[in-house]
Design a protein that fits this description.
This protein has about 100 residues and is of the alpha+beta class. It is built from 4 helices and 6 strands.
Length: about 100
Amino acid sequence: MPCPGTISGLNLPGGNGIRIDTAIYEGYTIPPNYDSMIAKIITYGDTRNEAISKMKRALEETVIEGVDTNLDFLFNIIRNPNFIRGNFDTSFIEKEILNYKKEK
């Protein structure tokens, strides 16, 4: 869901195998009618496991203060054993993430 507001703190990851696509900056105000995607983090490596490892580090380094983000949701995905093994399909979020939250 869109989360309008002003970004009061920002730290985006970088380095080899990490790409960030965004136009946000500290002090940027996200308007209420803005698309809910304010940034895209892309990682790549020689293997799937290397790319996943880089994504874990990138998510750990990402700080976006002042607005709600989906970083916790992304951590749940990237740490999921079935995702790590490449065992997923279009029902992955519903089966692995949403149902898991209901059980807890």
